[in-house]
């Protein structure tokens, strides 16, 4: 469930307080649901970027490593 040790300790400590336990557990779950939604969004964005990069590398003679580095925002300075 991807709970930290501190979160587990908090839930165990609330075992004797059922009215607080439900509220705290819901807060904890809501926080994890929000984090998961954010990660899904970030991964979907990354997936689209990788698909774009793959399509671009298939249609050009440019060095694939150079394309990857340019696509990732890496900048090189010439000496």
From TrEMBL:
Domain of life assignment: Bacteria
InterPro entries according to UniProt: DNA-bd_dom_put_sf, Tscrpt_reg_MerR_DNA-bd
Pfam families (alphabetical): MerR-DNA-bind (PF09278)
Transcription regulator MerR DNA binding domain ranges (all copies): 2-53
The protein, known as: Cd(II)/Pb(II)-responsive transcriptional regulator
